[in-house]
Give the backbone structure.
Amino acid sequence: MVGQGPKSSSQSSWRLLLAFLCIVLVVVCGTIQVVHTHPDNIYHADCALCSTAHAVVQVTVPPVTLHISHVESVVEALIVPVRPGTFLTFALFTRPPPVDAVLA
């Protein structure tokens, strides 16, 4: 079977380096977004960081919830007993003797 042997140290170091790079990228981008300001302290529509920050924070109206109550009631139905129809068949029926065509 392929792949059951121990992993090489170069493959492990690349994964560790990639994970460290991703963590550093998230921390640096978050820090840049937090400390980002403009000299006139207003929102700029042409600034990518400002439009990203303000596009995420949107005031939404909560959905209307309907209050539904569960109503239970006992229903009594009159069940008329019905006699099952029977179909009797007589299995010991004997037919009449055949007619002798020669003598008839």
Q: What stands out?
A: Residues 9-56 form one domain.
